[in-house]
Specification:
about 100 residues; alpha+beta; YaeB-like fold; 5 strands; about 45% helix; about 30% strand
């Protein structure tokens, strides 16, 4: 059974910003690869919601890596998965 997936506004904004920064720095091909990987991770989680480890001690929030420098945080309930936000580990360097 697949869970319904929703993206928070913060997740959408961060996803778009990270994708745009990748496009500016490394081109369209790399930006498209980032997006494909993110959607693949979301698809996997929708099928196997507990596949990734809990973030710290918060069992209801989990951390999945889209890329080694970009984790995605999400929560799972009985019927849905909520993508909470993406975090670019090099965010300070990219956004300044």
């Amino acid at each position: 059974m697949r869970l319904n997936v929703i993206f928070s506004n913060e997740a959408v904004d961060a996803f778009d910003a990270i994708g745009e920064q990748i496009r500016i720095r490394w081109g369209d091909k790399e930006a498209n690869e980032f997006r494909k990987r993110a959607y693949k991770v979301v698809d996997i989680i929708s099928k196997f919601p507990l596949i990734f480890q809990a973030a710290n001690k918060m069992e209801n929030i989990r951390k999945a890596f889209v890329h080694k420098n970009c984790p995605m945080f999400y929560s799972v309930s009985d019927a849905r998965m909520a993508v909470l936000f993406f975090w670019e580990n090099r965010q300070d360097a990219i956004f300044h």
